[in-house]
Each structure stands twice: as C-alpha cells, then as structure tokens.
Design goal:
Length: 294
C-alpha cells in the first residue's frame, strides 16, 4: 500500500505491519498481504484516492479470495465524500466483443481469470463509497535495468531460441499491448480528469500475431524465408494425434484468437504515447536488458 496525505503527514502505526517512508515527501509504504487487508482499515479510510492494482495470479480459490472478496472488503473501508475516485485494475482477458465480459471467463477461466470476472460482477453492482473506474489492461510490457520487468517482457529474452522455429508459422490472431510507462500516464490522467465513462480497455492499436513475429525476428536479427498458416482445426488435430488434452478455456481462446477491443492509450487523451509500436518497444527491451541477455 502506498499512502500519500494531502494535508500533512499521517503515519499510521499499524500493528504487525512493516512501514517505511519513501524518499518522496508525504509518501509511506505499508508492506503486507491482501489476505489481511483488515489491519489497514484506518489507513484506507483516510485515502483521498485509491489505485488498486494488486492481484493474485494463482490458479486456485485463493485468487478469488484476494481478487474478489478481499478487494471488495478493502474498498468498503474508504470513506464516502472523502475518497474522490477509485481506479481498479481488472484484465482484458474477461472481455469479448464490444468490451463486454464473457461468461466463459467465469465458467472455464483459470483461477486468476475467473476471480477477475467475479470481482467485476460484484464491484459493478456494489454500493461503493466512491466512484469506481475500471481499467482493463491488455498485454503489458515494461521494465528496465532499474525496474522489474512485466511477465511478458521478462519472457522475451530467455525464449529467443524458439524464434528459429516460430518464424515459419503464423495464425489468424490479434492482440493489443501497452507499455507500463504509458499505463501510468493514462492512470494519472484518469485519476482527476472529467470522465464520460466508467470502464476503459488499455491498449495501442491492434497487432496481428504475424506482425508480432515479424517484429521480433527483425529486432533480433532472425531471417524469415517462408511461413505456414496454422488454423484452429490443425491445432486440435495435433492435440488429438499426440493425445494432448485441451481444456474448455484454452479451446475458447484458440477459437477466439482475435483479442481486439475498443481501447484507449495516452494519445486518446492528448498525451504523448512513449511506446506506440511493437518495434520501438522491442528496441527498448534490447537497450535496457543486461548485456549478457541479448
């Protein structure tokens, strides 16, 4: 938890919780676990704004406990009239056409995905103490030699060896992406701006899987000579031949591989987008990665 007092420093001494001041005026860091969010009730009650990004990624009921039940409880501790706005991070994985949640995410999604669907369902219908703005990140890149890498960014360099095989294949699939620096820019803007909607999907213009593979190969000097198209029917045939079990959620994702939405990014709000294309994002990863990683 980060807490910033607008009208002076108020350092709550929460029993059993590690607290430390950051080298920025009026900001304190409370180190703990969402499972025990109750111990932070006094801190939360005094917040003027909340940005909730903490999540549990596990494929278990523990994800639902933290991402849905404990999140709703935490937001209930905010003080009406005092807290001006809540920015809550969900995930675009629960969305389908027209940016609407899909029931498949609840029925078949992994623990994390299912928990985010349940949380969205509960929070949308809850009587919260402050206005709720829900953000749905798409594929998140980010990190450098001074900041931790996102899941996706951290997986690129260690798996470059697979490019020599992947370069020969593509599929009809599409996705959005956004760099964490641009997400921070949009989040800062939405915190106090006058808004005409309560839900935003965060992402740049859609990129096809074919374009993404081309960008990766170009960035890391892997030539492409020819390519074969992989269809869902071919994937299911291979799974049958090699006796690979494909679950209902994985099957849904394969049959709905064009994960594209109506998105916003910094330029939507008249701000500068730092990483608009996948190419300059990959160049940034190359430039900021440890030398022995590339």
């Amino acid at each position: 938890f980060f807490f910033q007092a607008e009208d002076g420093i108020r350092d709550y001494k929460v029993t059993g919780v590690q607290t430390c001041a950051l080298p920025i005026s009026n900001i304190f860091l409370y180190v703990g676990n969402m499972e025990f969010v109750e111990v932070y009730e006094a801190v939360i009650a005094d917040m003027d704004y909340m940005i909730h990004i903490a999540t549990d990624w596990s494929d278990s009921d523990y994800a639902t406990l933290l991402n849905a039940k404990k999140t709703k409880r935490m937001l209930s501790y905010l003080t009406p009239q005092k807290c001006k706005r809540i920015l809550y991070f969900s995930t675009a994985s629960i969305l389908g056409k027209n940016n609407k949640p899909i029931i498949e995410a609840k029925k078949h999604g992994a623990g994390y995905v299912k928990s985010k669907y349940i949380a969205h369902e509960q929070l949308t219908n809850a009587n919260l103490p402050a206005p709720l703005i829900t953000l749905f990140p798409t594929m998140v890149f980010g990190g450098d030699n001074q900041h931790p890498y996102s899941h996706i960014s951290s997986g690129i360099l260690p798996n470059l060896g697979y490019l020599k095989y992947i370069r020969f294949f593509y599929a009809d699939a599409g996705f959005h992406f956004m760099h964490s620096q641009d997400i921070a820019s949009v989040t800062h803007h939405l915190l106090t701006a006058e808004l005409n909607q309560t839900e935003y999907v965060l992402g740049n213009k859609p990129t096809t899987l074919k374009e993404a593979i081309s960008a990766l190969c170009k960035a890391f000097g892997v030539p492409i000579y020819f390519r074969f198209k992989i269809t869902p029917k071919f994937v299911f045939l291979l799974a049958k031949i090699f006796r690979i079990q494909i679950g209902p959620w994985e099957k849904h994702c394969i049959n709905n591989a064009n994960m594209t939405y109506q998105t916003v990014n910094p330029s939507t709000f008249g701000l500068k987008t730092q990483f608009e294309s996948l190419s300059n994002l990959l160049e940034n990863i190359k430039d900021t990665a440890p030398r022995n990683s590339v």
